C-alpha cells in the first residue's frame, strides 16, 4: 500500500492524510515485537509530570536500538509515499515510540512539529505516525486540525510534561484519525496535532518517523537531527550511515523468525 493521488491532494490542501493498511499484518507483527521488547525492558521514559500519575511513555531514538527501524524508512513504499508528499531528496531526521498504558495513559497536548524543527516551509517536512495498535478515540488516537498548517501557533513549555511544548488552540475543527493497526497518518510540520488519554483496558502504541525534503528545507539542518539520507544522490540505502545496505523485508522476516 502507498499513498494514492487523492491522498496526496488531501495532504497538499489540508496538511494531512491517512492511509489504511499501509503496513501489512506481518510488518505490523514485526513492529509490535520491537515495541513489546522495549516495553518489557522498561526502556521507554514516562515524560508525564501529572500529579495523578497518568503516564505518557516515550522512547527516542529507535534506529540505534533496532535493525527493523533502521530499515523501515527505506521500505520502497515509504520512500515512494514520502516522496509523493514532500518530494525528493528525503532525509529521515527522527524516530520515536509513544505508548499510552491502559486506563492511565495520558494524551499529548496540541503542538506542531515545526515548533521543534523550525523549517521556513511547513510542507518541507512530514511526520508518518504508525498505529501499532488499533487507534481509537477511546485509547487516545491522533487528532489533527486540518487546513491551518500555514498559520503560526505560539508554543510554551507543557507543564504536564518534562519533555514537550504545547500550543493553545480552538479544537472546533479537530478531526480524530482512527486507524486500525498498520494504518498511518501523514501530517506536515505545520499541522497542529495531539493525542487523547487512553481510557481503554489495553495499552496503545504509536511510532512517529519524521522526514524532510533536504532541498525545500533550504539548507536548514540541525546537528541534533538523525540525518539519514533516504533518497537522492547522497542516499546509499543505509551503507554510509550504518555500514551495510538495510532491507525492510529481510528485517521483517528476521524479526518474525526470532519471535517464534
Ligand atoms: O502518539 C502519541 O501519543 C503522540 C504523537 C505525537 O504527538 C507526535 O507524533 O508528535
Topology:
Layout: H1 5-14, E1 16-19, H2 25-41, E2 45-46, E3 57-59, H3 67-71, H4 76-86, E4 90-100, H5 114-117, E5 125-131, E6 142-144, E7 156-157, E8 165-166, E9 175-176, E10 184-188, E11 193-195, E12 204-213, E13 228-229, H6 239-242, H7 248-259
Antiparallel strand pairs: 1-10, 2-3, 3-4, 4-12, 4-13, 5-10, 5-12, 6-9, 6-11, 7-8
Helix pairs in contact: 2-7
Could you explain the architecture of this structure?
The protein is an alpha+beta fold. It has a single domain (5-259), classed as q2cbj1_9rhob like domain (Jelly Rolls, Sandwich). Helix content is 24%, strand content 22%. Strands 1, 2, 3, 4, 5, 10, 12 and 13 form an 8-stranded antiparallel β-sheet that branches. A hairpin with a 7-residue loop joins strand 7 (156-157) and strand 8 (165-166). Helix 2 (25-41) crosses helix 7. The chain is globular and about 45 Å long. It starts with a helix and ends with a helix. The mean pLDDT is 93. 2-oxoglutaric acid (AKG) binds next to strand 5, strand 11 and strand 12.
